[in-house]
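Design a sequence for this backbone.
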């Protein structure tokens, strides 16, 4: 009996395989020997301006970003300096990035390395030198009780100074108002600058990394066992910076800067998991509600899993409402098949020999123009970000067709 059942099953399997084999389609892909230059990913280069010579091969062939530390007093020295000074120095430091198709990640900072950690003054012969301290006029330099440990980059405080605060610098009474006005100018200069990938909050701490001093007491201080207000951390500065950046920067790339500023983890990228990033979700919910008029629950944010998904979700919701003012005649246009969709999309590809299997990078799809045309001619409203989320032209066609038939049937 068992043998008979086994023979029947084998015959059924053979019949199934035979039937499938008659419908098998063999697809041969054309080899693409080069690596892909991933937008917003890949190698990020840094070189010290005025010191390191730019490599002849610069940039790396597969990178699309460069990091630029911007000294505060070089973009605004006097409180009355205008936005034009920020733009002028940016043009100087970023000269030629658009010619090599590289975007900039600027970070404003004040202190490269504190003197009690072994920091050295700025090289007076190099105006673009990053080392040293870059306090603008009107802000007194820091003065504190720290002393450098011998033969070490660490610091200590003598017992008699255990409660002595730091004066000047970040703790100058005029600093909070000064930093808010600077961030406002940064938004005017960089929020719509196409050379800017995203803006890092920076400003506070060594290298602008939000430590020494810290923005909060979440992490233990580097040089002491316990935090001391107005020495190891700056009370109230976290909210001041968060509010200032949220108000000054409204574009999608700068939403990342907002989210990043509320993460306690390090090396945050768009691929970083929200839990790994140490995102402070509740403060983010408050900022989104107050400044973006967006309501999120803690669960909704957690369910997005990655920082990139969160940034895209925030931007999508903020920009998703588009006035529907199309003439009735245009609203009646329909695609009759996926082939129609392909023929419609093809003119928006700068690449040659476009097929359904062509990758989005090779196809060089003009997403902004495609999105506008879909809305104007077919009343199909798909965000530019959603259009970009397809590895091949075929996947893009499937997505557009699926969106079309929702309303066309």
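Sequence:
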């Amino acid at each position: 009996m068992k043998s008979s059942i086994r023979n029947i099953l084998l015959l059924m399997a053979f019949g199934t395989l035979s039937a499938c084999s008659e419908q098998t389609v063999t697809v041969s892909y054309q080899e693409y020997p080069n690596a892909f230059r991933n937008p917003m990913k890949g190698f990020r280069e840094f070189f010290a301006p005025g010191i390191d010579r730019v490599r002849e091969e610069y940039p790396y062939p597969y990178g699309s970003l460069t990091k630029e530390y911007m000294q505060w007093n070089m973009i605004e020295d006097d409180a009355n300096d205008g936005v034009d000074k920020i733009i002028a120095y940016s043009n100087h430091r970023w000269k030629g990035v658009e010619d090599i198709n590289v975007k900039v990640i600027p970070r404003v900072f004040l202190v490269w390395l504190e003197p009690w950690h072994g920091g050295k003054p700025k090289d007076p012969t190099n105006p673009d030198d990053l080392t040293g301290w870059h306090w603008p006029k009107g802000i007194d330099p820091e003065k504190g009780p720290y002393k450098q440990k011998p033969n070490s980059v660490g610091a200590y405080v003598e017992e008699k100074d255990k409660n002595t605060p730091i004066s000047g610098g970040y703790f100058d009474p005029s600093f909070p108002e000064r930093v808010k006005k600077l961030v406002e100018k940064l938004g005017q200069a960089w929020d719509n600058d196409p050379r800017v990938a995203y803006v890092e909050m920076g400003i506070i701490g060594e290298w602008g990394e939000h430590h020494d001093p810290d923005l909060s007491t979440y992490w233990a201080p580097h040089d002491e066992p316990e935090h001391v207000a107005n020495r190891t951390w700056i009370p109230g500065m976290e909210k001041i910076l968060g509010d200032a950046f949220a108000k000054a920067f409204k574009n999608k790339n700068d939403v990342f800067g907002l989210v990043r500023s509320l993460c306690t983890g390090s090396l945050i990228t768009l691929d970083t998991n929200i839990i790994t990033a140490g995102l402070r979700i509740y403060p983010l919910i408050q900022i989104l509600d107050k400044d973006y008029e967006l309501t999120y629950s803690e669960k909704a944010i957690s369910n997005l899993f990655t920082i990139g998904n969160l940034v895209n979700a925030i931007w999508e919701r903020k920009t998703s409402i588009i006035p529907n003012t199309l003439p009735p005649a245009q609203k009646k246009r329909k695609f009759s098949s996926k082939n129609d969709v392909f023929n419609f999309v093809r003119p928006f590809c700068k690449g040659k020999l476009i097929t359904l299997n062509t990758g989005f990078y090779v196809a060089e799809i003009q997403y902004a123009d495609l999105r506008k045309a879909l809305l104007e001619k077919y009343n199909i409203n798909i965000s530019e970000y959603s259009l970009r989320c397809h590895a091949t032209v075929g996947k893009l066609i499937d997505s557009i067709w699926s969106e079309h038939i929702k309303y066309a049937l």
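The radius of gyration is 28 Å.
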